[in-house]
Design goal:
By secondary structure, the chain is α/β, with parallel strands linked by helices. The protein contains seven helices and 15 strands. It has an eight-stranded mixed sheet with strand order 6-5-4-3-2-1-14-15. Strand 11, helix 7 and strand 12 form a beta-alpha-beta unit. The longest helix has 12 residues.
């Protein structure tokens, strides 16, 4: 069976030229994060909002969840007016209340009924309707926004890790060790003093630790290679190892015959 991981957006919070905020779509129905640019990310790739069955929330920073009110509003009034498409949100305890407050702030009174129809799942492990097993694990980021990563595995053996926003940490690397595809953020250049994101040297070390894993870099601070505009932060890409792909919006990775391509 073929599976698909689609990079709907690959930029960090500052939206480098040519990039939407980082968010990923698995098999056209499972969304990892819902940034402010999620609606346009889906539209640009021909995915209607009512086709999304599951939204996995990595953490509660605005560039990862502030698109939820727009997705909910669109779903309620345009793509799923009859409420025929169930929606599950996978998130840590406490996220439901904060996301509800966000929706009430964005559209007071408009989303109350819709919010009651969502199935909220706070467990650390579970399974999607189409068989993907998932697990949520704590990562190294700003603790005030409950940062987590996810590992997914399909019945036919495909496995994917999504780092969320995270600096180097054992929990993430243990999940990567068991996986063939790692979607990992590289949110900061080398000169920024922070341990809460991966930097180019961290990606270098990670690729050497797990040479059989295919790494996809997202949440990047670097403008897209095809941008024609003056640079935001940086336009030069690191010299990544052969098992590292610095993704652009729209890139997709297909699981066929036991390999990610």
């Amino acid at each position: 069976m073929a599976h698909k991981v689609k990079m709907l957006g690959t930029g960090n919070a500052f939206l480098p030229n040519g990039r939407l905020h980082s968010h990923v779509l698995i098999d056209d129905k499972h969304l990892v994060d819902a940034p402010p640019t999620a609606l346009i990310g889906l539209r640009k790739n021909g995915i209607t909002v009512d086709k999304i069955e599951t939204i996995f929330i990595t953490h509660l920073h605005g560039d990862h969840v502030f698109g939820l009110p727009f997705l909910f509003l669109e779903r309620q009034y345009i793509s799923d007016r009859q409420n025929n498409s169930p929606l599950k949100i996978i998130a840590a305890p406490g996220a439901k209340e904060r996301i509800t407050n966000l929706c009430n702030l964005a559209y007071p009174g408009s989303l109350e009924n819709f919010l009651t129809r969502i199935t909220w799942i706070e467990e650390t492990t579970g399974k999607t309707e189409d068989g993907w097993s998932w697990e949520r694990f704590r990562v190294h980021h700003d603790d005030s926004v409950d940062p987590f990563g996810y590992r997914f595995e399909s019945p036919d053996g495909a496995s994917v890790v999504h780092s969320g926003d995270s600096g180097p940490c054992d929990t993430l690397y243990q999940a990567i060790e068991r996986s063939q595809l790692g979607v990992v953020e590289m949110g900061l250049p080398e000169w920024v003093d922070s341990e809460h994101h991966h930097k180019p040297s961290d990606i270098q070390k990670l690729s050497e630790m797990y040479p059989s894993t295919k790494f996809v870099i997202t949440h990047t601070y670097i403008d897209d290679k095809d941008s024609k505009f003056p640079k935001i932060t940086e336009t030069e890409f690191p010299n990544h190892p052969s098992n590292v792909h610095h993704a652009s919006d729209g890139d997709e990775f297909i699981w066929e015959n036991g390999h990610w391509k």
